[in-house]
Amino acid sequence: MKKNRQKRLDDLLNRIRMASSTSLEELSQYFGVSTATIRRDIKFLEQEQTVVQTKGGVLYRQNRERTPQRRDPRVSFIEEKIRIAEYCTELVEEHDEIIVGPGTTTFLVGRIFSGIDDRRFRIITNSLELALETSGISNIETVILGGEVYERHSSGFTAHDDYFSTCHQQHKLLLSADGIDLKRGLTLFDPRFLMVFKKMIAVSSTVILATDSSKIGKVYFNKIADLEVISIVVTDTDAPARFCRELEDRGISVITV
Questions:
Q1: For the chain, which residues score pLDDT lower than 50?
Q2: Topology of 3-60 in CATH?
Q3: Separation between Cα atoms, residue 62 and residue 205, nearest integer Å
């Protein structure tokens, strides 16, 4: 198979995995090829039992025939999130133990992680949906954190104590926040998630903030932490240059994609 087609197939699968459903026309326009080419690619992926083509559209499914998810209407900045998610796969190393924190962007990154097949690693998450996504994948071990169910997340307010009280302090944490401000740090709208964020940070030696630029400059009442806890920021190219320079001056690596 030609290298450029393999790259397109990989990118195509990532886009379908992120959006859950799309159309041949949208994919054709994005990749700059004909709908016939996209249709052939989809047929190939259908043979792999990875996607299913429907009348007028394409849906993502897993090899174990799980029913495809509908597009989440709350997902915005999807193009930016996909680029961020794809870059974050480069930060996963062999035998990493990665905590995936609550949030839309981190959930999408976690879904991209499910496509990594050349490294063995562990995912620790409080997302029920993400745990189902990664369970049964041979090179990924999944740990689901307990607690009360809140929409798609198991957002335990006290039930996480057993895990966090016995685990080591060398996790990589994939983090998101509702607000990111140079003076007020990382903030959150919903206070129910505040304690689990703090516990995740406390056991992590590397904190990766995955965020689109729309969160920059926003401030909410519930403070998660100062910016100094962050090791790496992965954001999109619309992030303000002054903001990025300030982070780098503080010793935080900034990647724009």
A1: 1, 3, 63-75
A2: Arc Repressor Mutant, subunit A (1.10.10)
A3: 32
